[in-house]
Design a protein that fits this description.
The structure is a homodimer of 330-residue chains. Chain A is built from 15 helices and ten strands. Chain A is an alpha/beta fold and 330 residues long. Chain A starts with a strand and ends with a helix. The model of chain A has no long low-confidence stretch (mean pLDDT 96). Helices cover 52% and strands 14% of the residues of chain A. At the A-B interface, β9, α9 and α10 of A face β9, α9 and α10 of B.
């Protein structure tokens, strides 16, 4: 019998994941918040707002607007809403709605205010054990999946057999997926990379060059290692694609929204005016507010995170903050 | 008394290093192979061929054409010729010419045919001990030094006090230098990064995207670690700027000659026609010929190096070779 996957979310990453899954023998219950987007997809086989060039195979993909129904028949529930909305969406469900299912998060962010990982929230609210939780780690621009450019994903889960099974389910001609056991570490890294991308953007906005960016990213890797060693210690290869690869694809992309946001801050925009101009909030803006208190609590030396936090939340001038930061890098 | 540094070489990296040193209280005996370039510098205070916008302070910089004289009064000899010419230049000197001096290499390459590091060759030919040998590791585009964009260098040497002293000598307002003890590892890494840059170029030429490049670079770091652990094992943090930073500035630069060369190979140029078109030979072309036999000898798993070697020296099609490589990455 075919596996049924409920994909929750209608953005570009959700659309890319739906496309990937539909390359294999699965049924996809695709939940979209917007009824008109759902209808557009049913009528025309394209998402009107994200990756609209991607043809969606409606023989396998069933767009839906009722969350409970989308999930009811699913073996696997794949969360792909922006982190800012995940709690709102999950709280629509009764607490037994995910029993017996595998929950996969493709969200690169944490639950705001609670400052916990998405999988921790799912585990707590729905009484799901670590055994049934997976996370998808990059490096992966949705746009390149849309173009069927060869990409790689890492499926992270304590139960490596389940991680491997999902890796097979999502692999295809242009997507290779592997599995690792480090769930929390990969999730935190995905969150932190957006903070680092903002830092790279700020540096760019302040007119620092490529030499400085390379040093910034190398130091960021050391900062990420210190954080993970303090918060969720285990033997891990930080140079694996799930960590370093993900950081690179974000920090070196001209299209990264976090980098663009940082660049505007570096050029002198206020946080509010940068957000208004971009018509959106970069994930890293929330991410640093989640990571910062953890850094304080665990007393981890994280000068880049500190600088981004000070600039975005303490309104310290990027020029001044980077004068301090530059002396802390090597 | 002021330190006298002999800088050997007239290219862009040599010019950038001369500029950096001249920010401090040193005397620089600058040896250039070309007599007309030397005269141009003496007359106009600019290198006519490389970083020609850089003003050279002739109160401190003494351009010279006689190698022995340039070296005779020097406390420190800084080698900055292309690796292809280093042996030819060094062999002009009597074997006792470097006695009592500190020799610093800024060369990102190995001695051809002998397949040994520049410091190993210097040590052997001139009977210099490891105590007096240093290497300069990136990440550093010479062009950004010329523009006085903040950059970082790492000075590598077994004698950490001497490495630190040279780090102070070369540090200035826009250059921060630190010291580490790993001489051979940093030198090998600087050589290997050019091979990886060629691989990134080939991928680009074959139309692979940013997702793939991020995976390629992450896998390259793992490949570099395996090589160093086999060839020159010691405790080192590969995410330091000297290793990861140097790799990033090269592989993500649109201006890297190695990347450009690789990109032409990926688009179907033969090695010879790419070299003719570029009017130069990319360092990585020689580097892979040095690294490959060591990889074989030490039996290290290095699929990226293997692929670049097969494409450049065994004339295997880049398309075919990357079809094999892509399945070996994760």
């Amino acid at each position: 019998m075919e596996t049924t996957v409920a994909v929750i979310g209608g953005g570009s990453w959700a659309t890319a994941l739906v496309k990937l899954l539909s390359e294999n023998e699965v049924v996809i219950n695709w939940w979209l918040r917007s009824k008109s987007d759902m209808n557009h997809i049913i009528n025309y086989g394209h998402n009107p707002r994200y990756l609209s060039g991607v043809h969606l195979n409606l023989k396998k993909i069933k767009p839906q607007h009722e969350l409970k129904e989308a999930i009811a028949t699913a073996d696997i529930v794949l969360l792909a809403v922006p982190s800012a909305f995940v709690r709102e969406v999950l709280d629509l469900l009764p607490t037994d709605a995910l029993q017996g299912k595998i929950v996969v998060t493709a969200i690169k962010g944490m639950i705001r205010n609670e400052n916990i990982l998405v999988t921790d929230y799912v585990s707590k609210r729905f009484s799901i054990t670590a055994d049934d939780l997976l996370a998808i780690a990059g490096p992966c621009h949705a746009e390149e999946v849309a173009l069927e450019k060869l990409s790689y994903l890492t499926i992270c889960g304590a139960n490596i057999a389940k991680a491997k099974a999902f890796a097979s389910l999502i692999s295809c001609r242009y997507l290779k997926a592997t599995a690792i056991e480090d769930l929390a570490g990969a999730e935190y890294c995905a969150v932190m990379k957006n903070v680092i991308a903002i830092a790279c953007g700020i540096a760019h906005g302040l007119n620092y060059g490529d030499n400085f960016q390379a040093v910034l990213v190398a130091n960021a890797m050391q900062e990420i290692r210190r954080f993970l060693d303090a918060v969720t210690p285990m033997e891990r290869d930080l140079n694996a694609s799930a960590y370093l690869g993900d950081l690179l694809v974000t920090t070196y992309s001209q299209f990264s929204r976090n980098r663009t946001f940082g660049s505007m801050i570096g050029r002198g925009y206020s946080v509010k005016s940068a957000q208004l101009e971009m018509r959106m909030v970069a994930e890293g803006y929330y991410a640093v507010a989640c990571i910062y208190p953890m850094m304080k609590k665990h007393q981890v030396k994280m000068p880049i995170t500190q600088a981004v936090y000070n600039i975005l939340y303490e309104k310290i001038s990027p020029i001044v903050e980077f004068q301090i930061l530059r002396d802390l890098l090597a």
